[in-house]
Amino acid sequence: MADHTADQSVPHARTSRTGPDGDTARNTSAGQGISRRTLLGTAGATGLVLGASGGAVGYAAAPAPATPLTSVGADRVMFHGKHQPGITTPLQARGHLVAFDLAAGAGRKEAAALLRRWSQTARRLMAGEPSAERDTDVARDAGPSGLTVTFGFGHSFFGRTGLEKQRPVALDPLPDFSSDQLDRARSNGDLWVQIGANDALVAFHALRAIQQDAGGAARVRWQMNGFNRSPGATSHPMTARNLMGQIDGTRNPKPAEPDFDERIFVPASGADGPAWMADGSYAVVRRIRMLLDDWEQLSVKEQEDVIGRRKADGAPLSGGSETTEMDLEKTDAGGSLVVPINAHARITRPDQNGGAAMLRRPFSYHDGIGPDGVPDAGLLFVCWQADPLRGFVTVQRKLDRGDALSPFIRHEASGLFAVPGGAAEGTYVGQDLLEA
């Protein structure tokens, strides 16, 4: 898990972010970017306080100007664009993954209406506005807080909607792996939604709005909650750590790399799939339980040998810093490989897998402690690639043959989803598929 990725760092709170198409994704000016939701929330609260004070001295208080949002609250990601949000967006502090199945009798027409509603709601919420109908006010006092909402289609969706001929070959079911102990009820689904934000209430608000929008067209199949480090929690941007305490994300492909788009996104030419998937990507979702009681019995040296990197700073055991290229041939004084032959970081290196690469964008999860005192915790693994057979499947097959990390993890749920390109202004996600 630790080395499929590139540097997934949490930016400083006041660092501007640029979206995948070069658009600035936030506005940190003190007097700008205040949403209607925030304006109403802060002005209302201020008026109540001043009204009480004014009553005591005989004055009717006028509403005070709304307090500008903090940098985290003002962070906005654009909904419309070449690619859907939530793929190259920096890691968010809170996330929800949810899969839906279409209701009995619902087909292509109902699915199109649903995606239209969902897209409209996502656009509004990501702008810091209330949902169009029945807004719950959960996020009334907050700004967009980096909210993203991402939509995808599962293998079964195409049969349910009569669109089998439009199903991509790349969406063929994933093969079985030896570490799988999958709960089928918490795997796959007709539709998939990924929600991320840097505020827990903003993320929940979006989850609730998406569920309400589903109405009678679809029902929740499964739902999972995750988290990451909050922006500004470290003194400088750092690669995230997982619940094993390991720096996790050092070798993620970076958007600045010249071959990033061809490895992560489906080409617009249509050569690698149906035209409706142009500029889209494929998401592999795995709920990976970490057997933390067993892992924590290992010494730090033993943990480092399992991963192939130093726990303190993520540097390879062959030396250097976190970003130093790993020397796979280096040996110690006794002639043994410094990076063990079955180390996780060695096995997952792209140059050891025919160049296979995927953009990992996970969340950690903790779903409580069982009667036996064992935590149900681990990683909501989400990775993005132009072709899952060349990306996730290639690497996972190799891990299956002898990864030192395998005894300490268990894959308990799985899904593969086709995530189309972003929606242009005036359109909705998946429109090219559903209205072709």
UniProtKB/TrEMBL annotation:
Cofactor: heme b
Keyword Signal among record annotations: yes
Entry-linked Pfam families: Dyp_perox_C, Dyp_perox_N
Catalysis performed (reactions): heme b + 2 H(+) = protoporphyrin IX + Fe(2+)
E.C. no: 1.11.1.-
Record localization: Cell envelope
GO BP terms in the entry: iron import into cell
GO molecular function: ferrochelatase activity; heme binding; metal ion binding; peroxidase activity
Keyword Heme assigned: yes
Residues annotated as domain Dyp-type peroxidase N-terminal: 84-228
Source taxon at top rank: Bacteria
Keywords assigned by UniProt, alphabetized: Heme, Iron, Lyase, Metal-binding, Oxidoreductase, Peroxidase, Signal
Classification via PROSITE patterns: DYP_PEROXIDASE, TAT
Broadest EC class assigned to this enzyme: oxidoreductase
Domain Dyp-type peroxidase C-terminal: start-end pairs: 239-423
Cofactor: binding comment: Binds 1 heme b (iron(II)-protoporphyrin IX) group non-covalently per subunit.
Its job: Involved in the recovery of exogenous heme iron. Extracts iron from heme while preserving the protoporphyrin ring intact.
Cited NCBIfam families: Dyp_perox_fam, tat_substr_1
PANTHER family, A to Z: DEFERROCHELATASE, DEFERROCHELATASE/PEROXIDASE
Entry's family note: Belongs to the DyP-type peroxidase family.
Protein name from the UniProt record: Deferrochelatase
